[in-house]
Design goal:
- The structure holds two protein chains of two kinds.
- By secondary structure, chain A is mostly helical.
- Chain A has one domain.
- Chain A is built from twelve helices and no strands.
- The two termini of chain A are 23 Å apart.
- By secondary structure, chain B is α/β, with parallel strands linked by helices.
- Classes of the chains: A mainly alpha, B alpha/beta.
- At the A-B interface, helix 1 and helix 5 of A face helix 2 and helix 3 of B.
């Protein structure tokens, strides 16, 4: 536990001493603010539905920038040789790093709460729907970061890690569109189930389905397990 | 403390380390001497647990590296050849991170950081960002990190590379002091380094352990690899006789110079004494024309040659 905590603290310290975290957080908040104003002011609806939809897309484009350095930077700087020879199990490394990235995600989520102020000042939004939306947002972000961490575990090049992550995430996001091409109910169900986007839409409508919660958690767990396995194997 | 048995690492067809076995006890500094690419780094990485062995076994403080890596790692301080530093952290934050992972208790943290910073002369840069450090400081921070938590075993991959002469001296002192109570394995390709600080010397080349010798034995091999080359116009038999009779010359090898029948190049194997060139020069110049005289510095290659020709039976090898 203390080993994982040490890795976690080191991750946060390095995040906030490089410009990337500041860049990602500020772009995210700016983007969210823009979409929020657009959605709410233009429609006059006091909901976060449209904004959440856009936040999901921002997540797809910005999480690769958070996760790309997780292990790639350790390989290329030679610090992997330290990290992998210290008395740390691969799980302590994987989870410490992952929680560091998730903390950035939480910071982003917390930052967007500002948008709720005018919503509550000038209207009566449905609180539970918003809570469900945020739950979906965090779960989606956790899955994206886990996939990103796996990609970063596989290469020493941060750019490659980011590109790989973005491709995988876009694939997972839009795979639901294939439903329209399928006649077989099994295949329709499968591509629908694999879609990051379709599950997310449920959340922002205020629908917390255990199936969707499980989906994002399973994706995260599988990606992290593969990262751990790869770290063991590459010895 | 360190026990390596039949350690082997293959990368595809390349045999990086081939059936290497040795032990390092507490209170001992074993020097790992070999040219670049001999397999020193690969061996150290296997002992540190960074890479797994293809076959063979590494035991550190009684723990098998293959099955109890984390337990073994608690007893190891490892300074890789390229200092593993987080450029974005400052020196203090970096050392604190490593100390936390190594389980240094919170109450002892400040004293421990002070101890290693003092040992490696890092006090002046303690609050500086690592990316601003000079090469010498980076190297010493890499060593300081390995000393944290007072490990039983210290693995150092070319610890003095990139340091200036003063820093080299200080670093060797740190290692020597540490080696009195711990087991130290250090790799180097600098002959003088091992003879200065190591109790025993393992000589490795092409992934194979040629021998483990004492620094005295190594010194002998160095002396035997001393050579003086002379070029003289003289009758061959008389020249050989004259050179062989010079005090300090052990062996002479005569070669003709192409295109000139009367001119000979002679390689004289000499012992370590300093005036031997002068003695050779005097002996030859009295009677003949001395064209050239050159002392060859003992190179690692020549020393290796001594061991290779002497055979692996020499010393307490395996």
């Amino acid at each position: 536990m203390s080993g994982m905590l040490a890795v976690y603290r080191k991750e946060l310290a390095t995040y906030f001493r490089s410009p990337i975290a500041y860049y990602v957080v500020s772009v995210f908040l700016l983007g969210t603010g823009y979409f929020f104003s657009y959605n709410v002011v233009l429609t006059g609806e006091t909901t976060m539905t449209g904004t959440f939809q856009n936040m999901g897309l921002l997540l797809l484009t910005l999480t690769p920038l958070i996760s790309m350095r997780l292990l790639s930077a350790e390989y290329s700087a030679g610090t992997a040789e330290l990290l992998l020879t210290l008395p740390l199990s691969p799980w302590q490394i994987v989870l410490g790093k992952y929680l560091g990235a998730v903390t950035i995600l939480m910071a982003i989520a917390a930052g967007t709460l500002v948008d709720l102020v005018p919503l509550y000042l000038f209207g009566t939004p449905e609180t539970l729907t918003i809570v469900a939306g945020y739950l979906g947002f965090v779960l989606l972000g956790m899955a994206c970061l886990a996939v990103g961490q796996l990609c970063s575990t596989l290469t020493h090049n941060q750019i490659v890690a980011a590109l790989l992550t973005a491709s995988v995430l876009l694939g997972f996001w839009f795979v639901g569109h294939l439903q329209g091409f399928q006649t077989s109910p099994t295949l329709r169900g499968l591509v629908g189930y694999l879609s990051f986007g379709l599950h997310f839409v449920d959340f922002i409508r205020g629908l917390v389905r255990s199936e969707a919660v499980a989906f994002y958690l399973i994706v995260s767990a599988v990606a992290l397990t593969l990262s751990e396995g790869y770290l063991q194997w590459r010895r | 403390m360190i026990e390596v048995q039949h350690l082997t690492k293959r990368y595809g067809r390349v045999q990086a380390v081939d059936d290497v076995s040795f032990r390092v006890e507490r209170g001992e500094i074993l020097g790992f001497l070999g040219p670049n690419g001999a397999g020193k780094t690969t061996t150290l990485r296997m002992i540190a647990g960074f890479i797994a062995a293809t076959s063979g076994r590494v035991m550190v403080a009684g723990h098998d590296m293959a099955t109890q890596r984390v337990e073994a790692a608690r007893r190891i301080g490892y300074a890789p050849e390229r200092p593993p530093l987080y450029d974005m952290l400052d020196v203090g934050a970096y050392l604190r991170f490593v100390a936390r992972v190594k389980g240094v208790p919170r109450a002892a943290m400040a004293a421990e950081l002070e101890r290693v910073s003092a040992a490696c002369r890092l006090e002046a840069v303690f609050h500086q960002d690592i990316y601003k450090l000079s090469k010498g400081y980076r190297q010493r921070l890499g060593l300081a990190q390995a000393l944290l938590g007072d490990p039983d075993v210290l693995l150092l991959d070319e610890p003095t590379a990139g340091l200036d002469p003063g820093q080299i001296h200080e670093t060797r002192e740190v290692i020597r002091r540490f080696g009195t109570e711990h087991a130290v394995l250090l790799s180097t390709h600098i002959l003088a380094e091992v003879t200065l600080i190591c109790g025993r010397v393992a000589i490795i080349d092409h992934g194979r352990l040629l021998t483990i010798d004492s620094p005295m034995g190594l010194q002998r091999a160095v002396e035997q690899s001393n050579r003086v080359t002379v070029q003289v116009r003289a009758p061959a038999p008389a020249l050989c006789e004259t050179l062989s009779s010079v005090d300090g010359v052990r062996r002479v090898d005569l070669r003709t110079v192409s295109g000139d029948d009367g001119l000979f190049t002679v390689d004289c194997q000499v012992d370590g004494r300093k005036d031997v060139e002068a003695a050779i020069a005097r002996a030859v110049a009295v009677r003949w024309d001395l064209h050239r005289l050159e002392r060859q510095q003992p190179t690692l290659e020549n020393v290796f040659l001594q061991y290779v020709t002497a055979g692996p039976a020499r010393g307490a090898a395996r």
